[in-house]
Amino acid sequence: MKSTILVVDDEEKLRSLLKRIITLEGFRVLEADTLKAAGKTLEREAVDVVLCDVKLPDGNGVDFIKIIKDRYPAIEVILLTAFGNIPDGVEAIQNGAFNYIIKGDDNARIIPLLNQALEKKQLKDRISQLEERVGKKYSFDTILGSSQMLKEAIELAKIVAPNSTTVLLLGETGTGKEVFAQAIHNASKRSQQPFVALNCSSFSKELLESEIFGYKAGAFTSAVKDKKGLIEEADKGTLFLDEIGEMPLELQSKFLRVLESSEFIKLGETKTNRVDVRVIAATNRDLQNFVLEGKFRDDLFYRLNVYSITLPPLRDRKKDIPVLAKFFVGVFAEKINVPEPSITPEFIEKLLLHEWKGNIRELKNSIERAVIVSNGEPLTVTHLPLELRETHTKSQTLSAFDLHSVEKLHIQRVLNHTRYNKAEAARLLNIGLATLYRKIEDYQLQ
User: Fold this and answer.
1) Taking Cα atoms as reference points, which of 384, 444, 190, 166 lies closest to residue 282?
2) CA distance 235 to 176
3) How many structural domains is the chain composed of?
C-alpha cells in the first residue's frame, strides 16, 4: 500500500511541482490550499506525512503543526518555510515537526526527508500496535471463561477499575490474581502509566523494605548509590503487591502510611516523599484470621479491604476448562513452532475430573507439557502428566459402584457433549431443565 503525503500550500504551481516530484517516487499525493481544507482531508484520509507551508490564507502553518500533533500524533509534519526564515523552522521543530525545507532551495532534500519521516511514522505504528496487543492481553475481554462466579468477579473489577480505589484480590494460588490486577490497571485512567508488580513472599524483610521504599546511598554497606523503590517507580500508576499476607509486621505500619497519606520515607533518609499511586493487593491467605492471630495489622487490613474481589478456584468453574485448554494449546503450539494439535474428548474428560489444586497455573503447565510431548499429534490421555492419569484412575476405581459418582460423571459427559447447552443436555438426559440445574449445583459442575 502506497504511503500518503498531504501537500498544503496556496501556490498552485508549487503544489503541482511538489506533487509531480513526490508522485514519481511512488507516493500517493493529496493537495490542500488552506488549513481548513487540510483539516477536512485529515479527517477523512489516512495521511502519513504532511508538507505544510507557513503562510496560508486562513492561518499559520507553524501553529497548524500543534493541531495536527494533538489530533493525529502519529502523523509526521515537514514545514515549507520561505528562504531565510529559519526561526519559523526552529519553532516548527519545537511544535513537533519532523523537519523543515526552505521553499525553492531544498527540492533535493524532499524525498530523503519524506523517507526518513515515513520510517519514523512506521516505527510509531508498530509500537502502537504492540501497545494495543499488550493492552488487549490483559483486558477483561480476554479473561477466558463463562462460569457465573468468574462473571461476577469480572463485573466487580470493571466497576472499580475507572477510579483509584484500593482493591484487595482474594483467591487461591494460581487463580489469576495478577492478570485481574493488570486488567483493572488497563481499564483505569492510569493505564498509560506504569504497572509495577511485586511478590511479597519472594524477599526477606530487609530486601522487601528496600524494594518497596528504596534507599539513599550509604543506608547500608552495599548501598553505593541511591535507588528508587517500587512505590516511586509506580508513581501516577499502579502498584500490585501479591501475597501481601507475607509482609512482615514491621513493614506493614510503613506501608499503611502510604495508603493513608501517600507519603513514605526511603531507607537512610529523613525527609518525607510524596507519591500518587493506586494499590492493588492480593493474597491467598485468610487475612481476617491473620488479624486475630496477630500476624497482620487490623488497621492495614481494613484499609486494604475497601473493595475486595474473590477469584474462584478452577474446581468451581470446571465448565471453563475446555476453553482454557484450547487457548493454552494454541499458545504453546505457536511457542514451540508445531501445528496446533486437536484435542480428544478423553483428554478433556481427564482434565474435568482433576481437582486442580494449583488452579489455572497447574492447568497451563500440564497443557504445555502435553503439547511438547505430542509434537503436533492429537492430544490424548497419554500426553498428560502421570499424576493426573494415576489420580483419576484411583478415583474412578473407588467410586465405580457409587450411584452419585456415576451420575455426576454421566451428566458431566453430556454437558461436555452439548458444550454446556443446558436445554439440550436436559433433553438428552430425559430430565427437566430445573432438575438439571439442581444436579449441576449439587455436583458442583459449574
Assistant:
1) 166
2) 24
3) 3
